[in-house]
Amino acid sequence: MAHVADKDPVSGVDTTGHEWDGIKELDNPLPRWWLWVFYACVVWSIGYWIVMPSWPLVSSYTKGVIGFSQRENLIEEIAAAKADQAQWLDRIKTASVEEIRADPQLLEFAMAGGRSAFAVNCSQCHGQGAAGSKGYPNLNDDAWLWGGTPEQILFTITHGIRNADDPDARWSEMPKFGKDGLLDAKQIGDVVEHVLALSGQDHDAARAEAGKAVFVEQCVACHGDDGKGNIELGAPNLTDSIWLYGGDRAAVTESVVNARFGIMPAWGLKLDEATLKQLAVYVHALGGGQ
What we know:
single chain; mainly alpha; Cytochrome Bc1 Complex, Chain D, domain 2; two-stranded antiparallel ribbon; cell inner membrane; repeat; transmembrane helix; oxidoreductase activity; metal-binding
């Protein structure tokens, strides 16, 4: 049986007939200001539907009286921005990296473009701050396997390292001295101690001396008599404290036994010439360029 509305004895206001846990709902009218705002919103919405694009259709939408389109506005803004950038990009395409660096305005534009391209294409491996990680070089220091001049950096970015896609890719391959049986366990242990000695780390002096002969026979062709490497071959300097894969005894042993074979894409196959040059300028300016 439906509840019969009555008056609230305290306020004298009719109730709606709804009651919860002994609490009755009063039938107070809505505030007049609220009703006027509501009616105004209804009128506004009708006007908006007429004037502005609003209702979705099967494959389109109602265009409205003024035909406004935020998407078309955005397309026009992007086109205008590209047109404004085109003059700078054309200059970058025809200029050398050194000429870009010598022109303050062109350099500013290239740095901005290079920073953006680095974030999209390079930061996944080298890190957002370009500090790298194990197996991925730190681009902020001054250790460059293939040289750190602007032109050398541009070549490396363009052609990559040890990839099968570009015949001009930087290429070097360290022998797997242990895996391929080129050295026995003792010889590997000795030469590792010699490398630790070259880099000023704690080592077994007797074994390091024995490893020197192995180093001369097997390693100096790439790393040099003094162990300072050769950028023409991509052979790292073994006398500093910069190690791409780690420089402790275990990491050096792993490198000698199984070698390392890091690969970098040939970005020249993916990016345009202007973007490559902007990247080269940006990377060189990080602080470690030569």
